[in-house]
């Protein structure tokens, strides 16, 4: 008891609001409960709020930040939950912490969040806080990626036909279905460097996307810039070729893929073309994508 009291006085953060998405697989649920147990052993005080749909975490996180009652807000879920919590915390001093219980965990991987309960609990109470630039798409904050076209169709199919219980393997069927079902249409892309066309667009702030596909090794979350990947050419065979380049880390050697660094981009095309933001389906085109005027504080293992 004396040891626990000493730890509680010494840890950097002790009061946490935990925003939890309960729709996780068995292994993820085990990590979640074990991490909460470890936090309590370190003397942390926890309040848990469970979400039932996209958007619930935005209001809960914002209210927690405004109240000043918590040292951090923890997003316990996948990239969708993390996106919602981050949206509520952008511009506030209260930092975001992550318990990664999702399918892809793109953002958690990018900032080096550990996957063992003991390491994770110690990170959340004592880890470094970095202030990072945040993107925005049509005024809505995003953490790591916006996709227009093929991958957004795969996201749509994953939401309706995929299985989260299979982990990242659950993406395989939606991707194969998207290869067959998605009808490529031209997209007009405008940046500060001029106009171009493509059939699939990824706008990223991170190095890797779902299933650890390497988008661009130069991406740096601490830098106020976005990377635009333009995939040119229609058809399933072209997409298979480009997916292979992503899988093998050979994007820069593929003549049908262009990469551009920018501070803003406008994407136009048929309004029926699907788009997603951090793995959540977004509204219709056109999209105005750039950097949010405010930043986000995040508990990180190492500098991104």
Overall description:
- This protein has 304 residues and is of the alpha+beta class.
- It folds into 2 domains: 125 residues, Rossmann fold, CATH 3.40.50.10330; 152 residues, Tumour Suppressor Smad4 (Sandwich).
- The chain has 9 helices and 16 strands.
- The strands form 3 sheets. Strands 6-5-16-13-8-9 form a 6-stranded antiparallel beta sheet. Strands 12-11-10-7-14-15 form a 6-stranded antiparallel beta sheet, covered by helices on one side.
- Strand 14 and strand 15 form a beta hairpin.
- Helix 3 runs parallel beside helix 4 and helix 7 crosses helix 8.
- The longest helix is centred in the first third of the chain and has 16 residues.
- The protein is globular, with a radius of gyration of 20 Å.
- The N terminus is likely disordered.
């Amino acid at each position: 008891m004396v040891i626990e009291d000493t730890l509680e006085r010494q840890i950097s953060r002790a009061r946490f609001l935990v925003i939890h998405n309960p729709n996780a697989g068995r292994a993820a649920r085990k990590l979640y409960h074990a991490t909460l147990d470890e936090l309590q052993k370190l003397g942390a005080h926890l309040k848990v709020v469970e979400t039932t749909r996209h958007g619930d975490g935005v209001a809960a996180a914002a209210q927690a930040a405004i109240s000043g009652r918590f040292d951090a807000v923890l997003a316990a879920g996948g990239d969708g939950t993390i996106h919602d919590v981050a949206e509520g915390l952008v511009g506030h001093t209260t930092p975001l912490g992550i318990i990664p219980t999702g399918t892809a965990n793109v953002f958690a991987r990018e900032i080096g969040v550990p996957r063992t309960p003991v390491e994770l609990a110690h990170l959340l109470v004592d880890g470094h806080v970095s202030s990072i630039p945040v993107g925005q798409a049509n005024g809505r904050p995003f953490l790591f990626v916006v996709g227009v076209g093929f991958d957004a169709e795969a996201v749509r199919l994953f939401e309706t036909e995929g299985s989260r219980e299979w982990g990242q393997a659950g993406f395989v069927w939606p991707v194969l279905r998207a290869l067959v079902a998605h009808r490529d249409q031209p997209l007009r892309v405008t940046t500060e460097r001029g106009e171009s066309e493509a059939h699939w667009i990824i706008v990223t702030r991170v190095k890797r996307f779902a299933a650890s596909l390497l988008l661009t090794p130069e991406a740096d979350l601490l830098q106020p810039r976005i990377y635009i990947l333009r995939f040119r050419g229609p058809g399933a065979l072209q997409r298979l070729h480009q997916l292979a380049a992503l899988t093998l880390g050979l994007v820069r050697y593929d003549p049908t893929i262009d990469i551009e660094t920018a501070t803003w981009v406008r994407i136009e095309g048929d309004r029926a073309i699907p788009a997603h933001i951090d793995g959540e389906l977004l509204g219709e085109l056109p999209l105005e994508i750039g950097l949010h005027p405010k930043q986000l504080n995040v508990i990180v293992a190492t500098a991104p």
